[in-house]
Amino acid sequence: MSKNILEMRNITKLFPGVKALDNVNLEVKKGQIHALVGENGAGKSTLMNVLSGIYPYGTYEGDVLYHNEVCKFKDIKESEREGIAIIHQELALSPYMTVAENIFLGNEQQTNGVIDWHDTNDKAISLMKRVGLKIKHDVLVKNIGVGHQQLVEIAKALGKNCELLILDEPTAALNDNDSEHLLNLLLELNANQGITCIIISHKLHEVTKISDEITVIRDGRTIETLVKGTDEITEERIIKGMVGRAMENRYPEHTSNIGEIAFEVKDWRVYDPQDESRLRIKDVSFNVRKGEIVGIAGLMGAGRTELAMSIFGKAYGKHITGTIIKDGKEVHLHNVSQAIDEGLAYLTEDRKTAGLILIDDIKRNTSLANLHKLSKNGVIDEIQEIQVAEDYREKLQIKTPSIFQKAGNLSGGNQQKVCVAKWLFSDPDVLFLDEPTRGIDVGAKYEIYTIINQLADEGKCVVVISSELSEILGICDRVYVMNEGRIVGEMPRSEANQESIMTRIIQTTGNRK
Amino acid sequence: MENFKNLIRQNIRQYAMLLALVVIMIIFQITTNGVLLMPRNVSVLIMQNSYILILAIGMILCILTGGNIDLSVGAVVAYVSAFSALFSVTMGLPVVLSIFLALIMGLLAGMWQGFWIAYIKIPAFIVTLAGMLVFRGFSNMILKSQTILLPDLYVTIASKFIPDFIGDAMGGTGLHITTIVIGFIASVVYVIAQYRTRRNKIKYKFEVISNGFFIAQIVSIAAVINLFMFWLSREKGLPYVLLLLSVLVAIYTFITLKTVAGRHIYALGGNAKAAALSGVKTKRVMFWVYANMGLLSAVAGIVFAGRLNSASPTAGLGFELDAIAACFIGGASATGGVGTIMGAIIGGFIMGILNNGMSIMGVETYYQEIIKGLVLLFAVGFDVYSKSKAK
To answer: pTM of the predicted model, to two decimals?
Structure first.
């Protein structure tokens, strides 16, 4: 019988006005991979913050037992000393430092405050080997991809001799390849190096693949713990626990009513704004029909975001050439406000840094892209603005006590709905939705898909960019495959599947100069 | 009651500052044996601080765009007063035309800096640091390092009072009747505007504060306006500069709260990237905020020149720091997107009363500096602390 490395007993955590955790119990056995799943706002991150000392001992009720001893962590340093390391969704790396420096950030190899660089580099190289990171130790972190950055984080944790590694949404920002690599690494660390892992994830297929046990949390309570080998572990089974009911279909049924071509881009070329000799988008042409949902699949860095942003009023790129034809007429979009006026909308990939003004309320975020509709001679009609915000709050079921709530206080799914509300209010004909469901829970995803379908039904052109192939396959009528700045494939829904898309990508990779 | 608590909680920073202002006033009222709030001193207080308050109105907009400050405003004050002297004295142009041209010079200075900040993307700190040297240099060059006396109209703007035509018609009452009448009209306009907003909100079933609290609020503010104007009327009445300041506060409060332009400034400071991707022309907003700062510096420059009755190359030394401090004491966020015109004005008055009160008490200037520095530090410290507790 394996013994528990960690037990959290009857943890209750109160925030002003909210009970975030209500008698939560969690048992993690040594040497296992334990998954923590639940909808956004269910309390997973709060629980992990209790464990790692971000919420210090005394601010919560209940006991944390680590190696059968009650822990009284005052801060994250103390939990790290005991061998607990947490890797947050937002990576904590310093972009202008090298990989080696980052690995030992806060854990410098030093004597009397003087850093021993030989020691640092030596140890960093061996840690990088342990996580399978095949890059040089002295490159700057800003120059490596997200997948590699994630590995640097893990190496950093291992450098602190961690025994219990907590990963919060480790694959949320990764493409399928990098995710695969990371999951295999976790399995390897677990099997051969004796590291116990707790993984928080919304990607249930990953959870079912690698975990030994799965604890489901809902509304701040533990619902159940599923054990591999004993219980049935399927995505449907987990979703049932998460939402409290069975969810037959993850994608709403929908048949698009497709019309003629309404939006077309031809021979689109864009140069990198940082390196103006580098062609980022290479002669891309595509079209979208009225009422059609078109997906753009591809790996991280394929140029999908850059393509959308360069079309959206040249928000990205230099020396842009090519033509945009909307409703049979060529349009010239030199800035974002022109693009909005011409009926384009671009839902950003990252809602926190580029989509919302977190310190502003829901109302102001909703109206921002179309203030002139609410104003006369530059003066805003506040009454009308409130009505508009209330209207979208109801239509999109944004869960909030009031539209005067700051966007930063909302959960991920509701934040995304506010972003969607903003673009619906701008009344577009063509919508680019970049990773519309990243980091939001199953229930909210379903709602977003429903909205996307409604938009198509209204005769709008919808372009969905997503790194989750299953999502593209689940909602799109037609799929373009992008790789290395080119469109390398186009297929109708009937022909598109994981294999056909990945094959197109692999076949066209690597023919660089 | 719940309603009331929410209102307090949402506006805690503003109320805290207002409370601090009142407390400071009471303390100095006691320590100066009642001199602070004597009608004559109240007029002096307003005239002494008017140019800092005008600068603070422009500065808060700069800070809103993302914690950017303008270090050149003191130098622009000197540069504008130098141009005033050049136009009206050296060149002998009509005074009104000279003032107009001087304002244009200020606007051009602001546009020059706005261009480098917005379109070339040099940090505002550096552009305005350079501007501080450049514009100070211009003022020295024009004035040849000498002080030049200015025509009377400048003095009128800065240190004279509006004529009491109503009181005169009544044959002299010992009070400045026109001032009382203006105060009464202003309070009536305020009450009507508040009432109409509230009625509209009720009509559309929006959440409003309770009737009792609403009445208490408007009655007390109307009472303060009337009492204040009555107080001024006991001496020489309403100074022109207070009229100018009130109009500027009203215009800029309206712009920041009610217009698309104002919304775009807040959006830029709240999240520049999100604002740009929502169609806000962020460069243009930044440019005009700094151009406006130049214009308001010019207004402050003319008021200050009038106060000195002359153009001096050392005019406006250190004004930028007082204006910046006023904004931060008044609750502006150092990262942008948070702050109000009223907050900056309250912050400016806190600084002004500290200065004036301590001067009356005869506190040594070095102590005054130490105390003002600590007040700034503690005000912002309180803000940061209360925010971290709220989380």
So the answer is: 0.82
Task: Report which secondary-structure segment, H or E, holds A87.
Answer: strand A84-87
The whole-angstrom separation of Cα A40 and Cα A441 is 5
Check residues A38 and B373 and name the one with the higher pLDDT: B373
Average pLDDT score over residue span A353-376: 94
pLDDT, tens digit (0-9, with 9 covering 90-100), for A6-29:
999 999 988 765 678 889 999 999
Residue labelled with tokens 């035309």: B97
pLDDT at A1: 40
CA atoms within 13 A on the CB side of A287: 13
* Chain A contact probe: residue of B277, B285, B288, B333 with most A CBs at under 10 A: B277
Q: Do B271 and A354 touch (CB under 8 A)?
A: yes
> Is it the case that residue B342 has pLDDT exceeding 90?
yes
Give chain B positions within 8 Å (CB) of A353: 271, 273-274
Helices B260-270/B39-64 angle, 10° precision: 70
Average the pLDDT over B108-113 and give the result.
98
C-alpha–C-alpha distance, residues A16 and A11, integer Å: 17
Smallest CA–CA distance from B267 into chain A, residue: A357
- How many Å apart are CA A98 and CA A133, to the nearest integer? 14
B207 touches chain A (CB under 8 A): yes
Binary contact (A378, B274; C-beta < 8 A): no
Helix (H, G, I), strand (E, B) or coil at A18: strand
* Segments making up each domain of chain B, as ranges: 28-159+260-380, 161-238
In Å, how far are A108, A155, B35, B88, B288 from B91, measured between CA atoms? 68, 74, 43, 6, 30
Contact A336 B279 (CB under 8 A): yes
- Nearest CA among A12, A1, A16, A5 for reference residue A409: A16
In tens, the pLDDT along B170-185 reads 876 788 999 999 999 9
**Options 3.30.450.20, 3.40.50.2000, 3.40.50.300, 3.40.980.20; CATH of A4-243:** 3.40.50.300
A422 touches B: beta carbon within 8 Å: yes
Written out in words, the top-level CATH class of the domain with range A249-343+428-513 is alpha beta
Domain boundaries, chain A: 4-243, 249-343+428-513, 356-427
B268 touches A at CB < 8 Å: no
Does the CB of B288 have a partner CB in chain A at under 8 Å?
Answer: no
> For the residues B22-40, what does the mean pLDDT come to?
92
Query: Residue A310's closest chain B neighbor by CA?
Result: B277
Q: Which of A360, A424, A426 to mutate to test the interface with B (most CBs of B within 10 A)?
A: A360
Residue A336 burial (10 A CB sphere; 0-12, 13-18, 19+):
buried
ipTM over 0.95: no
For residue A346, which residues of chain B lie inside 8 Å, CB to CB?
277
Q: Cβ B266–A335 below 8 Å, yes or no?
A: no
**What is the signed CA dihedral for A144, A146, A152, A156, rounded to 10 degrees?**
140
